[in-house]
Amino acid sequence: MPHAIRLSIVAKAIFAAALLVAAPGMTAAKAGDACFGVINKTRDTVRVFSKTGSLTYLEIAPRTMDSFCCPADDKLCFDRSDGTTKIKFVRIDPKTPDEWSGDTCRKIYLKPGQTMGVAYDLDGRHIRCAPADPSDHLPDFSAIDLDGDGSVSLGEASSARIPARAFAAVDKDGDGRISHEEWKGIPKDINILKGIPF
Fold first, then answer.
1. Which residues, listed in sequence order, are joined to residue 127 by a DSSP beta bridge?
2. CB-based contacts of 100: which residues, under 8 Å, 6+ apart?
3. What span is annotated as the signal peptide, if there is one (predicted)?
């Protein structure tokens, strides 16, 4: 694959800028925190409303993966007796003051670690929600490993527009390189998904 095409794929697929609009009680993830992931497949901002607990609402940028975490000691977020949180998704219409939802997006019960995908419904206005796999939206490791040595250096990450902060989050062993194993582990750690475009 030519170098320019690899960079184009990576530029579209990865940069981890925090796009979390935090509500009271929401913080950066720590060990033991409860998180859920969202993949916004639309070209519009999607808002997540909590139907229970302390999470009021969060926004996900268009064509972006994100994750939202509640502190481990906040029993109000995943507060239902079965350990789930009740949420609702709406699409913000940029042309009108309307918010559009859909039957599959109004009463969703998520457990920590689950990821939900949001896409347009058949009418193009409403949205539909379904469980999603984050790994379906990550670029191939070879597109990021520009020199083909089996790992991604900070220089390669920078040339692919991956911020140093995101690089450090993926480089779990701290050796200054992203290995193929670390790359494959991204979907298992949904907190790394914050702001990743595709």
1. 120
2. 90, 91, 93, 125, 126, 127
3. 1-22
User: Are residues 182 and 94 both part of a single domain?
Assistant: no
| Structural domain count, the chain | 2
CA distances from 31 to 52, 53, 71 (A): 23, 21, 9
Give the mean pLDDT per block of 10 residues along the chain (198 residues): 40 28 37 79 90 68 83 67 85 84 89 91 93 81 90 86 77 94 77 64
Integer Cα distance of 19 and 77 in angstroms: 20
> DSSP class of residue 197?
E
- Beta strands 34-40; 115-120: pairing state: parallel
Residue 25 lies in a domain: no
Identity of the residue numbered 176: G
Residue 163: per-residue pLDDT:
67
**CA 78 and chain centroid, separation:** 18
Six token digits for residue 110? 């998520």
